Amino acid sequence: MLTYDVIIIGAGIVGTSIARNLSRFKLDILLLEKANDVSTGATKANSAIVHGGYAEKHTTLKGKLCYKGRVQFKRLNEELNFGFAQTGSLVVTTEDDTKPLEELMENGIKNGLHDLSIIGAEKIRELEPELSRDIKYALYCEGAGVCSPYEMAIALAENAVKNGVELKLEEEVTSIEKVDGVFRVTVNEKKEYYGRYVINAAGIYADKISKMVGVDDFEILPRSGQFMIFARGSGDPINTVVFQLPTKLGKGVLLTSTYYGNLLLGPDAKDDGEREDTSTHVERLAEIYRQTKALYHKLDPRLFIRSFTGIRARSSTDDFIIGETRVPGFINVAGIQSPGITSSPAIADMVVDILSKAGLMLEENPNFDPYRKPIITKKPLRPYKEIKDLLNIPSAPEKIICRCEQVTEAEIVDALHRGIEVKTVDGVKRRTRAGMGWCQGDFCRSRVVEIMEREYKKRIDPSYDVERSCVKRVTKSELLEYLKSQQLL
Q1: What is the residue-wise DSSP string for 70-123?
Q2: Res 247: pLDDT
Q3: Residue pLDDT, tens place only, 98-134
Q4: Which CATH superfamily groups domain 3-43+150-220+316-357?
Q5: pTM
Q6: pLDDT by residue (tens digit) across 330-385?
Q7: What sign has the CA pseudo-torsion 256, 139, 142, 297?
Q8: pLDDT in the model for residue 467
Q9: Are residues 473 and 304 in contact, defined by beta-carbon separation less than 8 angstroms?
Q10: Catalytic residue positions?
């Protein structure tokens, strides 16, 4: 019977960060994920911001870890090639009162930041010439930025697998028992794995996993946030991440360009949602639009291509919960809401330290390879006349499979053979951007399936997708009609 040194439950950004960090050592590690791919929860549905670290109270674990995580992104991106850009961020106000900005700055300094300043209208115009002239002051954080979070989790997972971590998808943990100092982890109510240490990184289900070992001192209170994303290039006029003043529900609605140049608005915050309800609602999107329009008058809803909802794993403590529990060897890494992406490298460091103090021997793996080649690299889209002859040629590496994002056959084939079986078209989308453009996959979906079936030599069900379930998303026509009815157009 194989007994793993560490079993990690959950393959979002936190679980994959921990797995990759632990793969630096001579350990037998198992990473379990109930979904059909890594990064299918909050990791793929968030604002993709690498936060500065000034918004979280300095007395919280969130406040202590955000900046420590942020400063690792440049190195991690150089090693793993997932997409990161340091753009800076602004917290803006139209009021004459700078006290709220000063309080944020003071808190950020207590969190260890050294790149904060309060700037006036003239400097704001230099950074963001397209923003409203009503903005009078801003808190500027030079080191904040944007990343591609699902690509980051995929890169971490690929690199972890390359370095010996065993990844099991579609294996939902249904019970955990500790017998004679070893955890018996049952998945799908029948299959069993054994491990000396268990790390609970199960996101919105972390409280349920914790209760399996009798630790019930917190609850996950799901908080939904809806987003609007616009066509590639729509974000080009925006140079930084633009925040409004935070509220008790979060950092507020933001305005930013994604790593690939899509304008992104959101999120709002609602506490009355369910753990799996990722539908979007036109009234909520319209309010996001209204708030953003006040700051960026050139916002064009005709460029809207998609809405989505992320479910944040807010804990009843309203802070990260990271530590060994009263059950020796069982470590909770729970309540990882914003700034979870930014904090994830520091969270992984903290977990390694906890394991070491709990008795796990950490011997460096001399064969550890920190590098992972990119699948795609950010590049300008070519004019249609330059690619049209590559759309319908016979199978070839240079054939264009996705015309909106200009993804080639070679890139898709590469994505399919990196140590993690890609079971869905949306899994290919997260790795290559095929299907993320104007037509949202109408053109390329069947073409992607054809390549997957050829490479894997089995039938691929195009309906086998989390994102194509019964979730209801607002369409462009619905949004435009509602905005018009509310006199927002």
Answers
A1: HTTHHHHHHHH---EEE--EEEEESSS--HHHHHHHHHHHHTT---EEEEEHHH
A2: 66
A3: 999 999 999 999 999 999 999 999 999 999 999 999 9
A4: FAD/NAD(P)-binding domain (3.50.50.60)
A5: 0.97
A6: 999 999 999 999 999 999 999 999 999 999 999 999 999 999 999 999 999 999 99
A7: positive
A8: 55
A9: no
A10: 51
- % helix / strand / coil in the chain, to the nearest 5? 30, 25, 45
If DSSP codes are grouped into helix, strand and coil, which group holds residue 254? Answer: strand
Between 275 and 72, residue with greater pLDDT: 72
Q: Which two tokens stand for residue 270?
A: 């609602």
Token output for 385: 């006349």
User: Candidates 3.30.110.40, 3.40.50.2000, 3.30.9.10, 3.50.50.60; correct CATH number of 85-143+221-312?
Assistant: 3.30.9.10
**Average of per-residue pLDDT across 51-60:** 97
Domain ranges of the chain: 3-43+150-220+316-357, 85-143+221-312, 384-417+425-464
Quick check: 140 and 127 in contact, CB under 8 A? yes
- At 235, the amino acid letter reads G
Structure tokens at 99: 């006290």
Q: Which is it for strands 254-257 and 262-266: parallel, antiparallel or unpaired?
A: antiparallel
Average pLDDT over residues 382-398: 97
Residue type, 425: V
Q: What tokens does 137 get?
A: 């002051």
d(CA 7, CA 447): 37
Which residue type sits at 160? A
- Reply yes or no: is the peptide bond before residue 339 cis, omega within 30 of 0: yes
- DSSP state at residue 204: G
pLDDT tens-digit readout, 250-270? 567 999 999 999 999 999 999
Q: How many CA atoms lie within 13 A of 477 on its CB side?
A: 0
Q: What are phi and psi of 426, to 5 degrees?
A: -65, -30
* C-alpha distance across the termini of the chain, in Å: 65
What phi, psi does 54 have (nearest 5°)? -100, -15
* Whether residue 274 has pLDDT greater than 90: no
Q: How far apart are CA 443 and CA 214, in angstroms?
A: 50
